[in-house]
Specification:
The protein is of the alpha+beta class and 290 residues long. 39% of the residues lie in helices and 24% in strands.
Length: 290
């Protein structure tokens, strides 16, 4: 395989999809309340609220966020920019992460429109360390660009390499190529724990994606040690962004300090954040109150 520029900058690196659940009352309340803010933020960005049902959960979806409740727990999903921005907070609220997708999107001179096809040919006959061939599937399309899949869709780990520029119908030379890794079940939980502990989450995502593909014989065009240059999607108004920043920088430290002194139950009660779910509270958060 032709060498790919090792230090090509990552245009975007981070979490691309996340599914979190909570079963303990306090976690259910925290996750449900946080998802309410996410849904409202998506509405503020132009999203339309719709009903959402998934494996017994019932709630709403707006834009890139879905939130649902059932008697035994809460489930929240986020994708795209919403996932990249709120993954850490979701994991703080949740009891479990059942799916976590990481992605790095890059541009490199050596990665033209036929990059996936070249990778597919180059991997012919290649085996992994345990002697098993790398399972791969190439889907070609003149309309949405080519996609190379590594592994099986039902597996706990699954990779996708596709032409992001072609998917978005954007003319770019060279095009942007996206490298995605999908973790499910135990692998998702382990990856989520490592993500939370990482000091620089974007760099950790870039390094993790690079290593995952390297272990399968693919040299992703981004250095495992590089600090990715992040390009974030615009979300909401500048005023809303400033308000969120003020909450994080100006309010959160004071709340944490008060909680350490007086305890979370009293502080959360004063802030109007219930410690346990109730039917009335769930209906209010999910917008089901008549």
């Amino acid at each position: 395989m032709s060498s790919v520029t090792a230090n090509a900058p990552a245009l975007v690196a981070g979490v691309d999809y996340i599914t979190c659940t909570a079963a303990r009352p306090s976690s259910m309340a925290a996750l449900l309340y946080f998802s309410k803010d996410l849904l409202e933020q998506e509405e503020g960005s132009g999203g339309v609220r719709k009903p959402w049902y998934f494996q017994g959960y019932a709630g709403h979806q707006v834009g890139q966020v879905q939130s649902g409740f059932k008697a035994t727990g809460v489930c929240v999903r986020a994708s795209g920019a919403a996932a990249r921005e709120c993954a850490a907070q979701l994991l703080e609220c949740a009891d479990n992460c059942s799916r976590l997708d990481l992605q790095v999107t890059v541009r490199a001179d050596e990665c033209g429109d036929d990059y996936a096809e070249k990778l597919h040919r180059d991997m012919l006959g290649r085996v992994r360390r345990r002697g098993r061939p790398v399972e791969r599937t190439l889907i070609t399309s003149t309309y949405s660009g080519d996609t190379l899949y590594l592994g099986r869709r039902v597996s706990d780990q699954y990779g996708r390499i596709y032409n992001k520029s072609a998917e978005e119908k954007t003319k770019e030379e060279p095009p942007r190529w996206r490298f995605e890794v999908e973790y499910k079940r135990g692998y998702a939980k382990a990856a989520a724990s490592a993500y939370v502990k990482a000091n620089a989450s974007a760099s950790w995502c870039a390094s993790t994606v690079h290593s995952w593909y390297a272990n399968r014989g693919v040299s992703a065009p981004v250095s495992a040690l590089a600090s990715p240059a992040i390009r974030c999607d615009a979300r909401g108004t500048a005023e809303e962004a400033n308000r969120l920043r003020w909450l994080k920088v100006g309010v959160r430290p004071a709340v944490v300090e008060l909680a350490a002194k007086y305890g979370w139950p009293d502080v959360l009660r004063l802030l109007g954040c219930p410690l346990a779910t109730s039917e009335r509270y769930v209906n209010e958060v999910l917008g089901l109150e008549e």
